[in-house]
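B., you asked whether I could sanity-check this one before it goes into the benchmark set. Here's the sequence:
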Amino acid sequence: MVKKTALEELDTKISLVLEKYNKLEEENRLLKETITSSRETEAKLRQEILKLKEEEELKDLELEDIVARIGKSIGLDTNRTEIPMAS
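And here's what the prediction gave me:
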């Protein structure tokens, strides 16, 4: 049975610690890249959401205008809250 000296044991432990440190450092780098990528994706998606909301608002305004013009062309007053019922 070979006995290790204290220096050899310390060297082995330091090597293990350095190996773990390097693995954790690489994992940390990958996580930072993932976070950066996720933030970029989030920013793009937020911009797309804002654009879609603006488009939706424009479509709603267009629909309201169309409804008003149709109502006007058939003689309905779309500003009134009640529609007269035919008797």
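One thing to flag: The chain has one domain: 1-73. Otherwise nothing jumped out at me.
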